[in-house]
TrEMBL record:
InterPro entries on file: DHS-like_NAD/FAD-binding_dom (IPR029035), Myo_inos_IolD (IPR030817), THDP-binding (IPR029061), Thiamin_PyroP_enz_cen_dom (IPR012000), Thiamin_PyroP_enz_TPP-bd_dom (IPR012001), TPP_enz (IPR045229), TPP_enzyme_TPP-bd (IPR011766)
UniProt-listed Enzyme Commission number(s): 3.7.1.22
Family: Belongs to the TPP enzyme family.
Enzyme class: hydrolase
Organism annotation: Mesorhizobium escarrei
Protein name in the entry: 3D-(3,5/4)-trihydroxycyclohexane-1,2-dione hydrolase
Presence of keyword Hydrolase: yes
Annotated Thiamine pyrophosphate enzyme TPP-binding domain residues: 418-569
Protein keywords: Hydrolase, Thiamine pyrophosphate
Thiamine pyrophosphate enzyme central domain residues: 221-354
Gene Ontology molecular functions: 3D-(3,5/4)-trihydroxycyclohexane-1,2-dione hydrolase activity
């Protein structure tokens, strides 16, 4: 029997396959790949672009301004969609491809899906070396696309059109795998993109994908139940995996019914609302005094969907030496860390089964009450930090408090690197689950504005509120222009504190002199302040520069009425920070001419004595 075939170029076949992949979100069948971010160059404009133009009404292509930023926008989209839909980012070869490597690192660290397609050199090598080709004298098979191997979950180079038949399904499987989720990269050599081949029509049949929900091993679950029942002071740590699983309501109900205090990681913030009865605040280095106090006393920690990075664990100093961990995670690697009892499985399924297996067990009321008491004290502290004063320059806490108060219940807060992650982790009071995105797995300066574009595209019914510092604005701001062009509105609040203020804080805290961080401490002819409002206005945004907290509140109210991206700038304090932090392990010089550095090294050595020994 002769199979039905269709003759297409490799690029055309790839695009047709993407157009026929679907998934189900909230009961509705939707495209698995709803769009492509692309910047075309000689490595993809003649073949891949031709294929994308033919389906532009089915698979929309959005023009980026920078390859890194458009891939970050794709990541922001995936995060806003809680990994249920996936964007594509396509570049040419050479510098365009390498610009995407940083974004791939963001996706890899944060376990987020994005499909990266890059042009490649010629497989036949006839025109070699082509423009933008980096040659390796001892290995001509290597080019810049090999750099993606370090920061992707799946990597392939298509050297024959037929290979996409096996490669694309494997890439999709990785993108949808809750345990192995991350970026998939496929290199597309220029000469192979153009080659026509008779593809089987069955390859393009519409396919509806479902994200798998692996259930936990029964014996491990029973062991977790036994261990939890021995706990006198149990604590839940909710991570990003709880949100991606859709376990928010289940975990919130479980924590309240069982009397377990629930703390949140950076990726997990927004699992519950700020005022949920079991909530005790964010944990770790940018955490609250309440959650960190409980962590220090907890005897059994139920870690749900978290990779337990150093900012969560206080570099593994936040817990008592004999505390025991039960780690629920879809990824075996994450579940097995630090001698934890690894319960490998989907967060929603595992918490549901854990709830059913616990019988009438509850945490002791004295412990539950302690969580409420510590959190009440923390909220009183927050009120004090956010209260307006007569100081001429407002603090981050005050600025965050005003923006938070003016935000709608469903508005999405987005930030990443710099001083704002710690300040919003502590001061932002989540009004509705899944309205908080702080990228800190890779702590990538530049993620924020691009992610705002992706998030606005993902859900036009809510407004992303992006908060950044002046350093991040200077590093990557071009997607302000992208959002104006595309009609995807966000509100951008720029806190101008004169440079890289939070890293200056760390520099000073470890005994170092202020050097090369704040503009005034850099090798400059004279300090100079950028007018960010005028700059953003030149890119088509509506803008307002404010001087006071009252003006900021009015500007936020105005920004919510505008029809396009709106940028508000305010000068903020570079030296006042919200306390609550746990200890953090960083390198401090063992010898130095500065007495402050020597003292800091001694203090760091003392802190390391509290660290939990493990792997």
């Amino acid at each position: 029997m002769t199979r039905a075939t269709v003759r297409l170029t490799m690029a055309q076949a790839l695009v047709r396959y993407l157009c026929n992949q679907f998934t189900v979100v909230d009961g509705e069948k939707v495209p698995l790949f709803p769009g492509v971010f692309a910047i075309f160059g000689h490595g993809n404009v003649t073949c891949l672009s031709e294929a994308l133009e033919a389906v532009k009404d089915v698979l929309p292509t959005w023009r980026g301004q920078n390859e890194q930023s458009m891939a970050l926008a794709a990541i922001g989209f995936a995060k806003a969609k809680r990994r249920r839909q996936i964007m594509v980012a396509a570049t040419s070869i050479g510098p365009g491809a390498l610009n995407m490597v940083t974004a791939a690192g963001v996706a890899h660290s944060n376990r987020l899906p994005v499909l990266l397609l890059s042009g490649d050199t010629f497989i036949n090598r006839r025109p070699d070396p082509v423009m933008q080709q980096v040659e390796h004298f001892g290995d001509p098979t290597i080019n810049v696309n090999d750099a993606f191997k370090a920061v992707t979950r799946y990597w392939d180079r298509i050297v024959h059109p037929e290979q996409i038949i096996s490669s694309l399904p494997q890439a999709v499987a990785v993108l949808l795998d809750p345990a192995d989720c991350g970026p998939a990269f496929i290199a597309l050599p220029q000469d192979v993109q153009e080659i026509a081949w008779d593809f089987p029509e069955a390859f393009f049949e519409p396919t509806v994908h479902a994200i798998p929900r692996p259930r936990p091993d029964r014996a491990r679950l029973e062991e977790a139940v036994r261990l939890l029942k021995t706990a006198k002071r149990p604590l839940i740590i909710s991570g990003g995996g709880a949100r991606y699983s859709g376990a928010e309501a289940t975990l919130a109900k479980f924590a309240e019914a069982r009397g377990l205090p629930i703390a949140e990681t950076i990726a997990g913030k927004g699992t519950v609302t700020h005022d949920h009865p079991a909530h005790v605040g964010p944990i770790g280095i940018v955490g609250s005094t309440s959650a960190n106090a409980l962590a220090g006393e907890a005897d059994v920690i139920l870690a749900v969907g978290t990779r337990l990075m150093d900012f969560t664990t206080g570099s593994w100093s936040a817990f008592s030496a004999d505390a025991k961990f039960v780690s629920i995670n879809a990824a075996r690697w994450d579940a097995t860390k630090h001698r934890a009892l690894a319960v490998v499985g989907d967060a929603l399924e595992t918490v549901s089964e854990l709830e059913a297996a616990l019988g009438d067990w509850k945490a002791e009321k004295t412990w539950t009450d302690k969580g409420k008491m510590e959190f009440a004290k923390w909220n009183t502290m927050l009120d004090g930090f956010q209260k307006p004063t007569n100081e001429p320059v407002p603090t981050y806490a005050q600025v965050v408090g005003v923006v938070n108060a003016k935000a709608g219940e469903r508005d999405l807060l987005i930030t990443a690197a710099g001083g704002l992650p710690g300040e919003v982790m502590k001061n932002w009071r989540v009004k509705e689950p899944n309205t908080f995105d702080c990228e800190f797995g890779f702590s990538c300066m530049g993620y924020e504005i691009s992610a705002g574009w992706g998030a606005a595209m993902a859900d036009p019914s809510r407004t992303p509120i992006v908060m950044i510092g002046d350093g991040t604005y200077m590093m990557m701001n071009s997607d302000i222009y992208s959002t104006v062009l595309a009609g995807h509105k966000m509100i951008l609040v720029v806190c101008d504190n004169g440079g890289y203020a939070v890293i200056n804080r760390l520099q000073n805290a470890k005994g170092g002199a202020s050097f090369n961080n704040l503009i005034k401490d850099c090798r400059v002819k004279e300090p100079f302040s950028v007018d960010f409002a005028k700059h953003a206005e030149a890119m088509g945004a509506l803008t307002r520069r404010v001087e006071s907290l009252a003006d900021l509140g009015q500007a936020m109210e105005w920004a919510k009425t505008t029809d396009r991206t709106t940028v508000i700038t305010i000068v903020s304090d570079a030296f006042t920070w919200t306390p609550g932090d746990a200890w953090w392990d960083v390198g401090v010089p063992e010898v130095s001419d500065r007495e402050q550095v020597r003292e800091a090294h001694s203090a760091q050595a003392e802190g390391r004595k509290k660290q939990r020994v493990g792997v």
